[in-house]
Design a protein that fits this description.
Blueprint (H helix, E strand, L loop, with lengths): L9 H13 L4 H7 L4 H5 L2 E2 L7 E2 L14 H35 L11 H10 L9 H17 L13 H10 L6 H11 L8 H31 L5 E5 L9 E6 L4 H9 L3 H9 L5 E6 H11 L3 E3 L4 H6 L5 E4 L7 H8 L3 E4 L10 E2 L7 H15 L13 E5 L3 H9 L7 H8 L5 E5 L11 H12 L2 E6 H9 L13 H10 L4 E5 L4 H14 L11 E5 L5 H12 L4 E3 L9 H15 L3 E3 L3 H19 L12 H9 L1
Parallel strand pairs: 4-5, 4-7, 5-6, 7-8, 8-9, 11-12, 11-14, 12-13, 14-15, 15-16
Antiparallel strand pairs: 1-2, 3-10
Helix pairs in contact: 4-6, 4-8, 4-9, 4-22, 5-6, 5-9, 6-9, 8-9, 9-21, 9-22, 10-15, 18-24
Bound molecules: FE(4)-NI(1)-S(5) cluster and iron/sulfur cluster.
The site of FE(4)-NI(1)-S(5) cluster has 14 residues, from helix 12, helix 19 and helix 22.
Catalytic activity: CO + 2 oxidized [2Fe-2S]-[ferredoxin] + H2O = 2 reduced [2Fe-2S]-[ferredoxin] + CO2 + 2 H(+)
Keywords: 4Fe-4S, Iron, Iron-sulfur, Metal-binding, Nickel, Oxidoreductase
GO molecular function: 4 iron, 4 sulfur cluster binding; anaerobic carbon-monoxide dehydrogenase activity; hydroxylamine reductase activity; nickel cation binding; peroxidase activity
């Protein structure tokens, strides 16, 4: 098969070819065999009860056996995706809260409170008075309070109060302020059971409430408590792509989402005894690299190299140079097990919640996490002499990561005057046209990574400051968009701002739970003044052009419910119902002053985002006539030399 058809990433192409030669099956091989079903894809296949399953046509007559219409079925399916995505982010947060609690009580060796400033800030936002309390006392209270946010039955989640006043009022008026994280997710599952909530707008409103419980609840708790435990990110240089694997080192890949065990593995690989063991088997040292959001977490805080994004997980093993891959939860392909068996890699599942058939399970128990980490490193070293069929792609790229919303404040406002004022001023004076968040997964049904980079180049050429997270961030980094020099590709206004402060035009803001940082950044912009009183008035837009996961839908829904219009590519799970599509692509605006849009073409998506930003500028009265630049061949060529 033609590897170029899947992506322009050379490292990925080389490994697709290697696996094809060696008869190893990967996601890129399987995707060609699986045809999508139009009913499933458009959202109108219902299998919620066994009078069905029912595939329902959207012709105004057809219905499921129970009478459910296309819009009801599609809304129920959509809302279930929101619930699953919110559950994933939030269960991650729960785990972090439990570890914070254990660390505060001195029961989690290897973990400690790293960021006291953040601890104080979070405590206050949770309604805890930090004065006069020791670090560990306060951390214990914060962890316990965070845990109550999950099981709370009435009232409002604490972090909701962080949102702009006007936005809180919108939510209150609609009755969609989340009461408790678990409660909203459970209610969403209940309402979508056969024969419960069957009015699509009513369903979608609870879908917003559930999503808000993720964005301003689960995801935000995960981000904030991880910052307390591991430090709030600051700009840091690192490297990305499969070329970060080292031919003469023991390579360990950490993959998944929770940075807990990976942080301990980073400690373990500095252990002198283990380093001596590695040298004894002929390795020069031990190299740790990440995949997916685990990668983003330890990249942001430690500058650990990133081996790749979600679609490169099997390919990393196929280099033949990975001794161990350690996975926990989410975005871990079952295909990994089969690929690992074709090479010398030992694959470890480590979460009590996730196993793969035929794969070593070594459970991460935070009471003895460091021991588990050392055991993994020891076993990785033992695999080193068994390498065969090694071929590591040469591609690697520099990047700068670490743009927490606090950092953005410092970098733009200066060390002594941290504020969003300069950003707001630059948006008002038009140097920066607006802000776009480019987030989410990669999907083998579209050209992997290319949609992200095409879109982002177009945006920065038009003076749109781009914030990236998740796999989108990794893909942009691989193409050299996350270095200050990338400012050369930016329009003159954005370029000027980037060069003045030495920042890239594309800022890596972290993992997917860190999309909560973007909610805070948007709120800070509002609070700084001059750009409206609500998030929905700010010239900004979100998108996930290569999405695939339910988590992406949850994120999109909380962005929209927070007032940010969001575009998705690939395919969209409401298109099987005209009514529901009209609602998500337009009608939602009447409720939350933002909506979804679907656009599979990245250049057209950029155009839509820019038009959206321009409309917001006009409404604010800050529109200055500006020609839209098309990212031309000349600029593309220039990029390839960078
Ligand atoms: Ni986000 Fe991160 Fe990647 Fe998609 Fe998966 S790793 S949590 S879901 S695939 S961006
Ligand atoms: Fe069919 Fe209704 Fe059952 Fe869904 S809930 S499978 S539409 S009968």
């Amino acid at each position: 098969m033609k590897a170029e058809a899947f992506t322009s990433c050379k490292a990925t192409q080389a490994m697709i070819e290697k696996t094809s030669r060696e008869g190893v099956t990967t996601v890129f091989h399987r995707v060609r065999e699986k045809k999508t079903c139009p009913f499933g894809s458009g959202g109108t296949c219902c299998r919620l009860c066994y009078m069905g399953p029912c595939r329902v046509k959207d012709d105004g007559q057809d219905a499921g056996v129970c009478g459910a219409t296309a819009e009801t079925i599609a809304a129920r399916n959509f809302c279930r995706m929101v619930a699953a995505g919110a559950a994933a982010h939030s269960d991650h947060a729960r785990e972090v809260a439990l570890v914070l609690l254990a660390a505060a009580r001195g029961e989690a060796p290897g973990f400690e409170i790293k960021d006291e400033e953040k601890l104080w800030a979070v405590a206050q936002d949770l309604g805890i008075d930090p004065v006069g309390k020791s670090k560990n006392q306060l951390a214990e209270e914060v962890a316990l309070k965070a845990l109550t946010e999950f099981g709370q039955q009435e009232g409002e989640l604490s972090f909701v109060r962080r949102a702009p006043q006007k936005r809180q009022e919108v939510w209150r008026r609609l009755g969609i302020i989340p009461r408790g994280i678990d409660r909203e997710i459970v209610e969403m599952l209940h309402r979508t059971h056969m024969g419960v909530d069957q009015e699509y707008v009513h369903l979608m409103l609870h879908g917003m409430r559930t999503a808000l419980a993720d964005g301003w609840g689960g995801s935000m708790i995960a981000t904030e408590l991880q910052d307390i435990l591991f430090g709030t990110p600051v700009p840091i240089r690192a490297k990305v792509n499969l070329g970060v694997l080292k031919p003469d080192h023991v390579n360990i890949i950490v993959h998944g989402h929770e940075p807990l065990l990976p942080e301990l593995i980073l400690l373990a690989v500095r252990d002198e005894e283990l380093l001596a063991q590695a040298r004894a088997v002929g390795a020069k040292g031990i190299n740790v690299a990440g995949i997916c959001c685990t990668a983003n977490e330890i990249l942001m805080r430690k500058g650990v190299p990133v081996a790749g994004s979600v679609l490169q997980q099997e390919l990393a093993i196929a280099t033949g140079a990975v001794e161990a891959m350690v996975v926990d939860v989410q975005c871990i392909m079952q295909g990994l097990g089969q690929v690992a068996r074709c090479y010398h890699t030992e694959l470890f599942t480590t979460s009590s919640r996730a196993r793969l058939p035929g794969v070593t399970h070594l459970e991460f128990d935070h009471h003895r996490g460091l021991e588990v980490a050392k055991e993994i490193v020891r076993r990785a070293i033992a695999r080193f002499p068994q390498r065969r069929k090694v071929e590591i792609p040469v591609e690697e790229m520099d990047l700068i990561a670490g743009f927490s919303h606090e950092t953005i404040k410092y970098i733009l406002g200066g060390r002594f005057r941290a504020s969003y004022r300069p950003l707001n001023d630059n948006i008002i004076n038009g140097r920066i046209r607006g802000v776009a968040a480019v987030v989410g997964c990669s999907n083998p049904r579209v050209r992997f990574g290319d949609l992200h980079t095409t879109l982002v180049r177009e945006l920065i050429a038009n003076d749109v400051l781009v914030l990236v997270t998740g796999c989108a961030a990794i893909n942009c980094a691989k193409e050299g968009l996350l270095v200050p020099e990338a400012a050369e590709m930016a329009g003159s206004g954005l370029r000027e701002v980037c060069e003045a402060v030495g920042m890239p035009p594309v800022l890596h803001c972290g993992s997917c739970v860190d999309n909560s940082r973007l909610l805070i950044a948007a709120t800070e912009i509002v609070k700084e003044g001059g750009l409206g009183e609500d998030i929905s008035e700010v010239p900004l837009c979100g998108c996930a052009p290569e999405w695939m996961s339910e988590k992406a839908i949850a994120i999109g829904q909380y962005f929209v419910a927070s007032g940010v219009t969001v575009g998705f590519g690939v395919a969209f799970p409401t298109t099987g119902s005209a009514k529901l599509s009209e609602f998500v692509f337009g009608g939602m605006k009447d409720y939350v002053n933002a909506h979804w849009f679907y656009e599979p073409d990245p250049v057209a998506m950029a155009r839509t985002i820019i038009a959206h930003i321009d409309a917001k500028r006009k409404a604010l009265g800050i529109d200055v006539a500006k020609e839209r630049v098309l990212y031309d061949m000349d600029m593309r060529r220039k990029l390839e030399v960078v």
